């Protein structure tokens, strides 16, 4: 939910001079398109709307990870407080006949 409407902010992400990184970026974009995490911008919409940076960084395990930097977009979102319960706090709230479930999405 937006606190305010983000401005039209079109940006062109600089491409790396390293062909390996460019190839990795193209693979990341193809994968994100395949899983419908991103979608192509139609010609009539290009240059309009709010754009975020996408880049790749090395993983500690040796591969590469695509990063979609949403930091600038977060400025326009409503802040919602979220408390992460600990296992200890959950165990203290259990009583006989109370059931819990966990769903991993």
Automatic annotation (TrEMBL):
Source superkingdom: Eukaryota
Name this polypeptide is given: Reverse transcriptase domain-containing protein
Gene3D superfamilies per record: 3.30.70.270, HIV Type 1 Reverse Transcriptase, subunit A, domain 1
Organism: Micrurus lemniscatus lemniscatus
């Amino acid at each position: 939910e937006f606190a305010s409407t983000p401005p039209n902010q079109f940006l062109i992400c600089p491409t790396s001079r390293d062909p390996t990184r460019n190839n990795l970026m193209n693979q990341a974009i193809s994968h994100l398109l395949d899983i419908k995490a991103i979608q192509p911008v139609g010609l009539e919409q290009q240059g309009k709307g709010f754009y975020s940076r996408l880049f790749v960084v090395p993983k500690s395990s040796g591969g590469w990870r695509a990063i979609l930097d949403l930091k600038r977009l977060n400025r326009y979102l409503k802040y919602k407080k979220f408390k992460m319960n600990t296992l200890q706090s959950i165990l203290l709230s259990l009583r006989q006949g109370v059931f819990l479930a966990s769903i991993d999405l």
